[in-house]
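Dear support,

We are seeing what looks like truncated structure output for some complexes. This example has four components. We would appreciate it if you could run it in full and send us the complete token output so we can diff it against ours.
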Amino acid sequence: MDSRVGKDGRDGGAGGVTRAIRDDIIRGVHAPGARLAEEALSARYGVSRVPVREALRTLEAEGFVARRPYAGVVVAALDDAEAEDLVEIRSLLEPLGAARAAVRHTPEQLGRLKELVALADDALAAGRLEELARLNSRFHEVLAQASGSRTLTELITQLRWKMEWVYTAKLPRRAQDSWREHREIVAVLESGDPDKAARVVTRHIGKGRGAHRPADPQAIAVDQDPED
Amino acid sequence: MDSRVGKDGRDGGAGGVTRAIRDDIIRGVHAPGARLAEEALSARYGVSRVPVREALRTLEAEGFVARRPYAGVVVAALDDAEAEDLVEIRSLLEPLGAARAAVRHTPEQLGRLKELVALADDALAAGRLEELARLNSRFHEVLAQASGSRTLTELITQLRWKMEWVYTAKLPRRAQDSWREHREIVAVLESGDPDKAARVVTRHIGKGRGAHRPADPQAIAVDQDPED
DNA sequence: GCCACCTTGATTGTATACAATCGTGCCCGA
DNA sequence: TCGGGCACGATTGTATACAATCAAGGTGGC
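Here is the complete output from our reference environment:
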């Protein structure tokens, strides 16, 4: 149970602490609304208060924690309406990213996507769902990067983090067959058709309906599949 | 030419430095690609290196600067493709925010919007364009907050900052008559119709066409109006 | 003359120490 | 008994000092 950030991580320094705290928030180690005292964090992650403070500043900008002057930071609480908005925003941005990726993707990125699909096939055959989830994150991360837009990439990545955050505490995983759709995405990217790429990803995300119409407040994305 | 952050600012501490540096980046004081040495910044803004570092962490998360380990931070450079993406992303998110605002806005927020429109009328009559620009920012800020979604509010606010950043260096202002449309937005919000709100803001932003189709690469938002 | 290596300088990353601020509990008085 | 005020503790915000790392320039050898 030692969460201290390893010295070996490629991102030396406070960046590692940022990732560690963010992961712990997503995984529910730090519950929403919990107070995050700087000294406690510095003890827990084995660094001084300065990197902790910088990490908290990053997490604040990303929306994972809220800061009030001289009152400390607390883990942000995502209510149902926020969760619904996340789904909606993502259903707008990821198709846009896919459309960009269809035009701008590099051969190397396409190769990485194909590689990830192949790895997922192996993992699926071996029944390693844990591996599948990790590959899923990587797939969408590379897909976002293929958009060629730094802004889009960062936004989509952060949205995915928050989606994971929301779903981690809400439902068990059901991951398997989304990879058939992943393979389809790669094929569309290779064809270079932006419209088709956007449509495929829209369907993949699971919000095929019109954009701006607010969904039924009752159906708070509980039927969404975290593994997409 | 003293940019040091005043002690009087409501947001005590490093938050003020963050705002100051961001404003200077947006205003072009720190040119894209410029190296931002921490000590130079701390001298310029009259604080120590620690608040500067925290501010840079925030600005990094917001995408205004890029950090490379032990290599310092540089002001991010937005190429034309990025600028185009910003326009596209905003044309997706602001209508969504308006749709949410039409349903969730509080009476207080609606009052503030009306008040801003009135103030803009006065400023317009007096010919104070500088005041108009500031009111314009406030209007869209309150409009975003009225969406009731913290995520949406932050995203839209950051996008607006970046739009301002892009346009500051590119074209002169032409601000006047967008306020007629602002008044229209307020009316739609009061009516409570989400679809109509989304349509009005979509037209207001100036990208009425379909969402995912990439725009003509030649027409890089140069004909966009920064004052909307 | 050119390349590899090392040294040096500057800059970032981190830790420790100090100051400012706020919440809290206690005490006193009505 | 209850309310206001005050002092205390804890925590955040900031400044200074030190360690780690990298880039550049010089020097020696080939």
